[in-house]
Each structure stands twice: as C-alpha cells, then as structure tokens.
Amino acid sequence: MKKFVPFILVPVVFILSFIFIQGCEKGKEPSKRFKIAGIIFQEDQSFRRCLLGMKDAAKKEGVTLFEANSDNKPDKEIQLVNTYITRKVDAIIISPLSKKASITALKRTYDSGIKVITYNTTIEGDIPSTHVGSDEVDLGIKTGKAARKYIQNKLYGKAKIAILAFKSQVPEQSEARTGGFKKELSDLEGVEIVSEQDAWLPEMAVNKMRDILTAHPDLDLIFTANEGGTVGAVMAVKNAGKAGKIPVFGIDVSTQILDFLLSENNILQASTCQQSYNMGFQAMESAVKLLGGGKVKRRVLLPGVLLRREKPDSVRAYKKRLEELALRG
Fold this sequence. Notes:
The protein is 49% helix and 20% strand. It contains 11 helices and 12 strands.
C-alpha cells in the first residue's frame, strides 16, 4: 500500500488546490483581490482620521488601498480619478470637491465599471453606490444651540455676529453648516450677522478676522464653519486682546481645538465635530461589501458630537482618543 500513497496524494492535493482557487474566484474570499483608491481633499487632522479609518478597514478586509490628496484642486481631482480608472481599481472612495463639477470625472469612473463611494461630501445623482457622511445642517444646528444658550444667558439675547465660512472651497457643505447655525438663531430678534466671509485655513482666518474686528469693534460673537477657521479665529481674538470678551463657536475638531476648549483664556466655547475615523472606516467597509455582492444603504449620516467648555471631562476624554489615533496615523 505504501507504494501507491504518492500517486494518490498528488492528484488529491491538486484537486483540492484547484477547488480552493476556484472558490476564491467565485467570491468566497473576494476582498483579497480588491484594489481601492481613497482620495481626501486637504491635509488636516479630520481628513487624516478619515484616511486612518480607511486604512484600518482595508487591513481588516485584506484589500489594497491607494492613498491620494486632491489638494482642493479640481484639475488634480480629475487627474487622480483618471489615473485610478487607468489602473483599473475596483472602487474609488472620494470626498468630491463639488456637488456638480465633480460629476463628469466620477461618471467616467462609474461607466468604467468602478464603484464610486463618497464620504464627507458627495455629488448629485445616482453615481455613488453609497455616501457616508455627517448631517452638515445638524453640525451647524448643534453649534447654533450652544451659541443660542450663550447669547440668552450672557448677552441678554442680543449679539452682533461674524461668520467665517468656506463657500469658495466647498460651497454646498459650507452653506449647509452656516445655514444650520443661522436657522437655530433665526427667531432671536436681537441677533445680527454683521459679517460673513470665507477663511478656512488658520493663517487666512487670522488675517480675515483681524480686519473684521477692526471694522466691527463692537462684535459680540464669532461662528466658524471648519477647523482652520476656528483655529484662526481663536488666535485673532487672542492677538487682539479680546480674550474673554468675544467668544468663538466652531465646527470640526483637532487636538489644538480641544486645547482651546480647555484653555483658561475663555475664547473657544464649543465645537461640533464629525466622526471622521468612523466615516472613513464605514466608507471602506461599504466598498468591500458592495464589491462582494452585498447591499448597503444609499446614505449613511453619522451624528456630530458637540464638545463644550462647560464639560471639560468630555473634552479631555475626546482628546485622549484623538492622540491615540494621531500616534497611529
């Protein structure tokens, strides 16, 4: 019997290997064959957390992730999308720069048989298989609620407000956030918006807010719609010697913003943040599920998290989590 064992084992091993390979080809372990591109549009802590979420989900699912940054440039966004179409990736996970202008490039992606998954921002129409993001209006509303409480309790229901937005960068997202904030204050007769300008990077916001403070020395409150604007506004108030006199209410989060909330200078009062890491993670998970033949919701909106100076323990706990993610990023 020993003489015949080799002749029996060889074909059996061959057949089992063939069955295993065929099983993989039919989708039993499809994720190991997937190539997915993840595109951010600027290098800040929020997008780094999105990308880290994608990385962790990609590692979990065993897919290859190509990372890229469009740097807020429409031409570069088109170039990146075309590059990944040529490389024949299986899916593109992207935060589009424009709800309308980004459609053309992503339609080419869709027409090429590549899945389109959007996160953070999206486009009009049915091209994306799914979108994972925040309720942008709700982010503004939550910060607006905190500002409303401050105005009613400390400013006797009256306030001259300046807004720093980012309409010329991502108009739809900016308008949703500022719109939510304004909506929450719309019935307060003593509230007046005296200036609304664009400034989404810290240096830009410092300069813009310096000019606003000069033009409106009686300013009572500042609302900022993103991370860079919030950082710059806080710095501008501090530089102007207005700490403790002009409060800032923002959207987005970073370790620096959390430090501002914990600072004794009493400038930043509250900021509503997106669940950036979870956004990236769920976008990648959705892509893998779609590529494996599964079904996902067309739209997933993650609630924002309001962080307030009044609750320092919650701020410290959130900061610890961000620092842990930063060490891994």
